[in-house]
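Async update (no meeting this week)

Hi team, since we skipped the sync, here's where things stand on the single-chain job. The sequence we agreed to prioritize is pasted below, unchanged from the tracker. I ran it this morning and attached the output directly underneath so nobody has to dig for it. Comments welcome in thread, and please keep replies under the output.
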Amino acid sequence: MQKILVTGAAGFIGFHLVQKLCAAKESGGVQVLGYDNLNDYYDVSLKEARLAELRKHKNFQFIKANLEDEGAMEKAFADFKPEIVIHLAAQAGVRYSLDHPWTYVQSNLVGFINILEGCRHHKVKHLVFASSSSVYGANKKVPFSEVDNVDHPVSLYAATKKSNELMAHSYAHLYGIPCTGLRFFTVYGPWGRPDMAYFKFANQIMKGDAIDVYNHGDMKRDFTYIDDIVDGVIKSSNNVPENSAPYCIYNIGNNNPENLMDMIGYLEEALGKKAETNMLPMQPGDVHETYADIEQLNQAVGFKPSTDLKTGLNKFVAWYKGYYK
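Output:
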């Protein structure tokens, strides 16, 4: 019986990952422990609804606690004894970090050291952790490659994610803990995060409110559909690094940046309603384009996303209309 600890289990990516792990292994091959604090960064009822779906699986159990709660984290490791840890929990959001810096220090730095210490003292076989495309910061070269310099973050959120990569590398080197970091690129889909642009736009379009479009719409994002992301995370968790400091970092994206205005057009079409727009300048901490070079992850685990943006947004809108009636 393989035991997997998933932090951020009530979050967007964590929810879909646990669903896939539990459904595929319902025969008894895997046990999943979810760990999440259900904070109010966005609508808690959505997190609770995700959790209610997860509780339907017999091979799922759940702990509600903060990452920075050292005692709760240690108890989770000691009692559950995970072989694999997939660490997705974090304080997310670039703009939120401008006004709430201490939240990021607690969740993303103190919380991450608690994860690393748990892996160290409980002989975890593989730690897979969420990094972010935001680490590329002011990088002008596209597509973004893992060999690019990422020493110029443009938000505190990005700086904490870069710090996680460095912390994980040091633990891999010092204690031989196999660590894989995944730099996520603009993940979207059903059960998504209401703070993400596509979700906010859907809410505002349906209400008839104008949407705020930054940099006057001149932005590109490597939108990556949730099912493709989950497939890549599971494949990565089964691919344990074996180099001298057993550590790998990969981009996990769609390898196909889309124009922001095209995304809005697909949303309008799926919702059957036109958007009113407020064209605004670039926000602090934002970047003009994200674009993932995914060759390394493709070589390592055969990662190849298959969902185009229009198809993915249609699936999101179908869920959205059903969930919000």
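Quick observations from my side:
The chain has a mean pLDDT of 95.
Residues 101-121 form the longest helix (21 residues).
Reply here if anything looks off.
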